[in-house]
Amino acid sequence: MQEPEEKKIALELLETEQAYVNRLHLLDQVFYTELMKEAKTGKTVPEEVVKMIFSNISSIYQFHAEFFLPELRKRMEDWNRNPRIGDVIQKLAPFLKMYGEYVKNFDKAVELITAWSEKSPPFQELIADIQKRKVCANLTLQHHMLEPVQRIPRYELLLKDYVRKLPPQSPDRGDAEKALEMIFMVAKHSNAAIAEMERLQNLWVVYQRLGLEDDIVDPSNELIKEGPIQKISTRNNSTSEKYLFLFNNMLLYCVPKVIQVGAEFQVHLRMDVEGMKVRELKDIEFPHTFLVSGKQRTLELQARSEEEMNTWIK
């Protein structure tokens, strides 16, 4: 008799989980443990660096090895009597939020491995040594570390497939659909963690360009738009090159620095967004001009095109 399609997928989930736990074992019990042991002797890298590289891999490994894999295995052995995995996956899903921390840290971890391999030959040698072992299958530490990043999307794909192949009257339908929804939410949580990390990194780069003025540096700020602009001087009918940074709460009116040592811009004026008014000016001599008036003062600005002016106004 042909195995039902949904059972094949459930078995594939079990097989990939077993292989995944082996990979986690390699990361936690081999790489992390051995690098940590060497770090404690003080000859390779600081212990802190090893901890930063591997983030919370130990918790992830223990969860899969001691809880999820055994539960899944038990369920598959009992499949003929109780053909379902939806409830087991529902127990798994909330714990997958632990991946947020690991995923968020991944790029930093890879950078640290590269930097310390250059700085500390013994560190590099130890990694190369472990990578030569049969268990590493000729793959690098970085390659193995990517596996947890890819695991949640893999669960999502397998479970989608499983739900699709379930017969309409299957006793697992309700549970499996709920489990899929939970996994989907966790994947979103993990993506949100990455997006937040990128937002903070980009924000930090902007703050560096502005010379890290302490009254401006705030992690909750959101950069909405930046770009060059012409400032119109009504006094002598001329324009000069300026640069704007628009945040959710303030507009920074800046002057590009001629000698770019450290900061790229000097903040000339900071305007609160609250109470700010913006309107287009119909000026024949200076096209694409708009007026920004705030509590602090009013600026007459000229964009390079009508499209650019409209984007700023919006």
UniProtKB/TrEMBL annotation:
UniProt entry tagged with the keyword Aminoacyl-tRNA synthetase: no
GO molecular function: guanyl-nucleotide exchange factor activity; zinc ion binding
Keyword terms of this UniProt record: Cytoplasm, Cytoskeleton, Metal-binding, Phosphoprotein, Repeat, Zinc, Zinc-finger
DH domain boundaries: 5-193
CDD domains according to UniProt: RhoGEF
Database matches in InterPro entries: DBL_dom_sf (IPR035899), DH_dom (IPR000219), FYVE_RhoGEF_PH (IPR051092), PH-like_dom_sf (IPR011993), PH_domain (IPR001849), SOS1_NGEF_PH (IPR055251)
Signal sequence segment: none
Ranges annotated as spanning the membrane: none
Family annotation (Pfam families): RhoGEF, SOS1_NGEF_PH
PH domain boundaries: 222-314
Location of the protein in the cell: Cytoplasm, Cytoskeleton
Chief site of localization: cytoplasm
GO cellular component terms given for this protein: cytoplasm; cytoskeleton
GO biological process: cytoskeleton organization; filopodium assembly
Iron found in the keyword field: no
Alphabetized SUPFAM superfamilies for the sequence: DBL homology domain (DH-domain), PH domain-like
UniProt-listed PANTHER family: FACIOGENITAL DYSPLASIA PROTEIN, FYVE, RHOGEF AND PH DOMAIN-CONTAINING PROTEIN 2
Protein name: FGD2 protein
Organism of this sequence: Cnemophilus loriae
Gene: Fgd2_0
